[in-house]
Amino acid sequence: MGRWKWIGLVVLVIVILRFVTNPPRFWLNLTKRVEPSAAVGERLVDKYGCRGCHRIGGVGALTGPDLDAVIARDRNVDPAHVTLRLWLRDPKKVRPNTPMPNFHLSDSEVEAIILYLESVAPK
Ligand code: HEC
Questions:
Q1: CA 29 to ligand 1 centroid distance, Å
Q2: In whole angstroms, what is the distance from residue 25 CA to residue 31 CA?
Q3: Which residue lies with its CA nearest to atom 42 of ligand 1?
Q4: Ligand 1, atom 39: nearest CA belongs to which residue?
Q5: Quick one: which of 18, 20, 99, 107 has the most CB atoms within 10 Å?
Q6: What residue ranges line ligand 1, CB within 6 angstroms?
Q7: Rg (Cα) of the chain, in Å, rounded?
Q8: Integer angstrom CA distances of residue 53 from 15, 48, 60, 86, 100
Q9: Whose alpha carbon is nearest atom 16 of ligand 1?
C-alpha cells in the first residue's frame, strides 16, 4: 500500500475507536432508546449498578452521595433537574476529576432514571 493508504487506514481506525469508546449522543439515542417510566428506571439502576456506590430509596452503598438526599436538595434548588440531567449524561463534563464513571446513557435512559429516583426518594 502507498503512504496515503496507510495514513487513511490509521485515521479510520482512530475514528472507529473514538466512536466505540465514546459514542456520540445521536447514536446512544438511536441504540439505547427506552420508554421513560419509573419501572424502566429501576431496571436501569440495577443494570448499571448505581447502588454499588449510591443509596437509592434507602438501599445501597455510600461510596458516592446518597441520591435520596440529592433529590431532596434538587426539589429546593433545581426542581427541573437541569444539573442532574447534565451529570447523568457525562459526569466529567460537570466535574472533570469525578470518580463516577460515564455510563453513556441515552436521553430517554436519563429520563427513566430520574423518574425512578424521584419515585423512591422520601417526599
Ligand atoms: C463507581 C461508583 C459509582 C457508580 C457505579 C455510580 N456513581 Fe454516581 N457518583 C459517584 C461518586 C463518587 C459521586 C460524587 C462525585 C463527585 O463528588 O465528584 C457520584 C455522583 C453522582 C450524582 C451527583 C450527586 C450530586 O451531589 O449532585 C448523581 C446524580 C449520581 N452520581 C447518579 C448515579 C447513577 C444514576 C448511577 C447509575 C447509572 C451512578 N451514579 C453510578 C460514584 C458512582
A1: 21
A2: 10
A3: 100
A4: 50
A5: 107
A6: 48-50, 52-54, 63-65, 67, 70, 84, 87-88, 95, 98-101, 103, 113
A7: 18
A8: 33, 11, 7, 19, 9
A9: 98
CB 64 within 8 A of CB 53: yes
In sequence order, which residues have a C-beta less than 8 Å from that of residue 12 and are 6 or more positions away? none
Q: What is the pLDDT of residue 123?
A: 85
pLDDT tens digits for range 83-113: 999 999 999 999 999 999 999 999 999 999 9
pLDDT at residue 43 is higher than 70: yes
Alpha carbon of residue 42 to chain centroid: 14
* Cell numbers that stand for 66 in this block: 446518597
